[in-house]
Each structure stands twice: as C-alpha cells, then as structure tokens.
Amino acid sequence: MWLLVVPGVLYCAAPVVANSIEPRILGVPFLLAWIIMATVVSPVIIWVAARLDPAYRADAIEPIPADDVPGGAAEGGEERGPAATGGPA
Description:
The protein is an all-alpha fold. The chain has 4 helices and no strands. The radius of gyration is 24 Å and the shape is elongated. 2% of the residues are buried. The mean pLDDT is 76.
C-alpha cells in the first residue's frame, strides 16, 4: 500500500522539483508537463497498488454499504418495496 504515497509525492514535489518554465516539453512549460505526467501516472500506480492488495489477490468480497440492511431483511429473501413495507403503491 506504500505505492499510494507516490501520487501525492508527485504532486507535492512539483513546486520544488519542477518549478521552471524551461525546458519546454512538447511546447508546454516543464511544470505543466510534470503535472500532466503525474495525472497520467497516478491512476496506473493506484491500479497496481489495488492489484497487489492481499484482499484483491484472495478474491475477497468487497463490502458494499447497500448490503448493510438494518434487521437483516435482505438476507431472508423478502420483498423490499412499497408493497412489502405498507407504503403507497
């Protein structure tokens, strides 16, 4: 999970490391090129970190907040809706 620190470091290091207009990369100032590179690289790093997560490799079920129904009514296979709750149809 330490890989998730890299995108933050890339963005935070930009003013220190890339605070110059020259050299220009593909016609854009170096600072802007750095930010674009960080924006493109960050999702890739997050994807790699997710794939290296032991829970992902174990094929664990991800909890979804919608699964947490009070009273456990969803587990019993009961109908949920206006007709089941006595509300208007």
